Amino acid sequence: MKLLLSGATGTLGVPLVQSLLTAHPELRIHAVLRSERAWLALQETLPPTLQARVRPLRVDLSDAANVAALAEVLHATERDSAPMTGLHLAADVSWDKPCEDMVQVNVEGSRNFCRLLCALSSQPRMLYVSTAYTRMHDWPYRNGYEESKALAERTIRAAFGSHMPMATFSCSLVVGDSRDGQIARFNGLYPLIKFLALFHPPFLVGHRDGLLDIVPVDWVVRELAALVEDLHAGRAPDEVVAAAGATRIRYEAVVRLIEARLSHHRAQHGLPPVPEVPILRDRQWSFLKRSLAAWQPPGLSSGDFRYFERLLQVYGTYASSDRVRAPLNVRTPAPDPQDFLGRTVDYWISRHPRALRARGVGATDVVGEAA
After folding, report:
1. pLDDT the model gives residue 237
2. pTM of this prediction?
């Protein structure tokens, strides 16, 4: 069993590599990594016995010339007649970039990954990982991330779908492990947690009864690993959507839960509770922006306030729209966020104890957390 994998050091990549190598002693992984530093980071997540079954392929997938050179070498020296599954996890997951700024990584990177897969095996099978917050067609894209992921899938299906089996795995907003909150990268919901911990924002924006689709990383990895195994065995469905479905959670419930966990930990340090932040509708925020063009909440620097506005826009968009795909072909229903989201916040706090102190930070500190 051979796997070509990108994104091995990411949110899903770290636990997935551990899970697959442990479950399948015969598995060998070719990990596409941008640098030696990324390879060292991946090694730190694995015991030596598992490291020996991972071979690094050091190349930047957004660099077509370097990918072409590597593909030529692999085709000449390592091309195999045995089946190989390609799992493309790597992506720019920023929510605040235009699509044109993400094409090189998300679209061309996906195309180049398929080229490497075809160079390594005469029987390639491709698994593209996308998001449940988008779809290839008939979808009003809310940001460049959604648009670029859909464009990437359309591109590789058109270019490679006729000569290799291809499946898509789409998951929604991934947070920490349902058992202990652990996660490898703090993206998605985590900038909101950090913002509420470090600042006292005057308000948030969104529909308080809007439903967020949040799923724990361990459940997602189990579903993804099962699809990898099915694809390798030649019996995979064309598509799996790992979304919360009936267990989606209200935006206000998420905000209040974060505040409650922050207040609990602050109390242990003799600090006052986090104040309950009001949630405004989009039209109320639009009125404020028009009426108070020079307004800036006290205690926020100009840089912090620009980030505050960006955060309001990003989360306000998702909290005001319930547009997310329904679960499809999953083996088990997603766990209820009410049962695990508190542990997600607790884990973030355990990794950022200084955030409990009442203080201000620069906007770059907050943005960097999601990088």
Report:
1. 76
2. 0.90
